[in-house]
Amino acid sequence: MKVEQIYTGCLAEAAYYIESAGEVAIIDPLRESKPYIERAQKDHATIKYVFETHFHADFVSGHIDLSNKTGATIVFGPTAQPAYPAYIAKDNEEFVLGKVKIKVLHTPGHTMESSTFLLIDEKGQDYAIFSGDTLFIGDVGRPDLAVKSDLSQEDLAGLLYESLHNKIMPLSDNVIVYPGHGAGSACGKNMSKETTDTLGNQRRFNYALQAKTKEAFINDVLTGLVTPPQYFPKNAVMNKMGYANVDEVLQKGTRALSPAAFEAASNEENALILDVRQAQTFAQGFIPNAINIGLEGQFASWVGTLIPDLQQAIVLITDEGKEQEAVLRLSRVGYDNCIGYLEGGFEAWKNEGRAIDTIESISAEEFAKRFKSQVHIMAFDVRRKSEYDSEHVIGIENLPLDFLNNHLSAINRNITTYIHCAGGYRSMLAISILKARGFNNLIDITGGFAAIKQTGQLALTDYVCPSTLL
To answer: Domain 244-351: what homologous superfamily?
Structure first.
């Protein structure tokens, strides 16, 4: 028996590969099928099942394409109603995979169809659970994403409590917990950087499992939740109803466009110009009105958070050889309407003498000097509220990037405004959005809050452990 976690850091998402006696099960695959098919071929094995823990909200799963290419059966837990062929398992139903078994434990709460898959080894012993968004390392799934008119977040939290205590907690301490996500995912609020643990450790250290009553649990898990990204319900619908073949999406998105064709496409299709280069590279020169979301960060989640329409036409500026990666990562969160990329990159545009724009960046030391010397200075911290609340520069207001589009009126277009985040990725993203909306007096602080703190020149709020802010 082989169990491998396939972790994708930019999405904080874990898929799983299980092989026994030449048969393979994949749990919660990403959009691209090739890595799973090649992994099975390496073992001279056949993919028999694709198990889905639930209709994912934070990414588009690859279950449909993987099933179409391999003939594997898609398996959901009870109550799931997909609009394509799939096997809907009963609670406690077992599936034979080579010499092992996978048992379905229906664990509603995060969503109603949410299920945990229990792996039973060759000796008939409970070996591991693949808990999806029911149980994380250090947290549990948020119960506010599947709210309906007849089902409140309190109702879902109560169901989650029962699922955990009736289905998962009775298992042995040595059972391994393989969750669907790790730290950085918006599917929870207190997830550990660790991506696996034993159930025994989670009993002792997971705050959500310490609650003595259902009422206390409901209060604990609902306190401190922030509004989920706007793309979540749209991805859940795609996972339930189906989506375009990813190979076709890649073919369309990797169409090379000359500067003239690029400009024409962006105008005729009203396409968003998305520049995925590194933040400081972007600052030194970019196409006017381009938005910078760098591939080196949590690219897909920020695209999903800040671009409202999944059908938005997109044209790309990338570093050479990064075109396919960018299109693929867009597709992972349902942005399937990329219509091409700038052949030759930004340099091709610049070499033709076309209009360009730049962003001024200053060091943290220079910012500290200016901040102390001026009585009134406009500066914003675009980190998340929880980051800002834990520690920030006294006198700098919080304007979280997550909600920037809703609070543009807070910024005075006529006053020089300084922007920082934690390290420089999000501040450049924020400034690029603002410039595309006509704000011009903007200055980036290189290195963000970390660099500002390192100078030791500005007064900070006392540090508060983030866990106490839940």
So the answer is: Rhodanese-like domain (3.40.250.10)
